[in-house]
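Usage example:
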Amino acid sequence: MTNAITMPLAVGASLQEKETKRSAHEMFVETAKKTSEDTAESRAAREAELAMKIRRRREQITGLVQTTVPAFLGFALFILAWQFLSQINSQIPSPAKVWMAAVKLFSDPFYSKGPNDQGIGWNILSSLKRVGIGFGLAALVGIPLGFMIGRFTFLDRMTAPIIAILRPVSPLAWLPIGLLVFKAANPAAIWVIFICSIWPMIINTAVGVQRIPQDYLNVARVLNLSEWKVFTKILFPAVLPYMLTGVKLSIGVAWLVIVAAEMLTGGVGIGFWLWDEWNNLVVEHIIVAIFVIGIVGLLLEQLLTRIAARFEFNEKA
Amino acid sequence: MNHSFHLVVDNVEKRFDTKQGEFLAIRDVNLRVNRGEFVALIGHSGCGKSTLLNLLAGLSTPTGGVLVCAGREVKGPGPDRGVVFQNHSLLPWLTCFQNVHLAVERVFAGKESKAQLKERTENALKLVGLSHAIHKHPNEISGGMKQRVGIARALAIEPAVLLLDEPFGALDALTRAHLQDELLRIVAETKSTVVMVTHDVDEAVLLSDRIVMMTNGPAATIGEILEVKLARPRDRLALAEDVEYHHYRKAVVEFLYSKHKKAA
Ligand SMILES: Nc1ncnc2c1ncn2[C@@H]1O[C@H](COP(=O)(O)OP(=O)(O)OP(=O)(O)O)[C@@H](O)[C@H]1O
Ligand SMILES: [Mg+2]
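Running the assembly step on the lines above writes:
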């Protein structure tokens, strides 16, 4: 922290020894005065430029400080509150204790001692794999379905009530159906991911198709473009940003659901591991798991935001 | 072949369903356009010029009457009628080149090689003075440039009928003059039939064989049709001092600003 604040001064000092303590503005005034005395105009210009540079640098750094300081402060308060809680309730491990546990866990993330005792890395990976399969299947079904619902009003009206009813159903309500049909825990968990993450993709894709500006479709109509061309040159690019929003929401839902599903189905996975640690009453591991789930979820979302940003186009200009 | 009109608009009426109920935009519109004729549609904003043009393009259907193009009833749009939209309507995810190429490909793909298609596209963009911006996206170019890409897209497919909705509206006077001259040259060459919506009296007189003047909406219709019998090719410099030219100009101005003054 202190480093960040003293840095601009340090930069100033290395650039111009004598004028360290003065503000950039004073220096600017100073250089202006010098111009009238100094015959070497170039020198004055150089100094003015230098003053500008320092000022700009200082603005940059204050900008950075303005965004990071509150974040740090938030974190510090959070840790403090946690520390306080752990002191009044001895069952809650302190931040330091959790940190130690996390360091230990991540020092050997990929060990494997039988099916019920595997490193945290394996647990994360198998959860990601389940999410990948369930979410991938949902995308495979949901996106084309969304396109069709968006394109054909009849289909929209046909499916709207079903979607409206099924969408708000809790993930766990789907699990028995999965267990019943697949007679195994793993496919049932994937099924739950599938059914819960499909809705945002269907809905967003359909909305995207419905919101394509009439102007674009008029172009297609005037040129009499083939259905394939309409799809590749107009529908798909126009819908892509909406679709990616759906995908982003879906992956969030999928990651949210996997923990709950794994808690019930067991096996290897971060959700199951969390539940296992609860049974072992290793509370610091539960907290580590919570952070891991949060961070992985954040990374997934960041990844998709990056991808989506690539496909953004500027509609207005 | 006996004489037949290229475009026929017969007793056309267009109503829109709006939240406030039905809105009668245009009614009793009758117009016959000869092959190779240049017709300007002029009228105050909101009178229904775009509505009529969209009907001719086949983008919307009339609620009464019929429209005929080349002897066949207009049932929908087609590449025989090139359209320049009022708001340019470029696809933002395609470059200028790709926007024009999409049209060129649709019309000439079976008949010409890839290189020829590319050449056609480049020529169309060159014609509107955009060779330097060929690989830019619409959001990277000015409003006038976008409009020019729209014009290039319509011209590139060499349509028998050109439907232009204020194609030069967003352009500065110099570019506008240049493109007007280009349009005259192209039309003389291709012998296209042109219907062009405009707000600009000079533009209407300079370019057209007939000026169709519309009354104010709602329930707008054709007020007067003025035949412009100026010899072609027309030269804007010579016309500036032409008595006849000013006579036509005055007629249109009178229609717009005294007979059918727009209620403020
Ligand atoms: N889709 C629509 N739904 C309802 N009303 C419409 C629709 N399209 C046009 N109108 C109405 O019809 C009238 C004529 O519109 P139009 O766009 O044809 O005018 P215009 O003469 O082209 O005007 P401008 O010169 O400003 O482009 C307007 O009053 C407009 O509000
Ligand atoms: Mg209009």
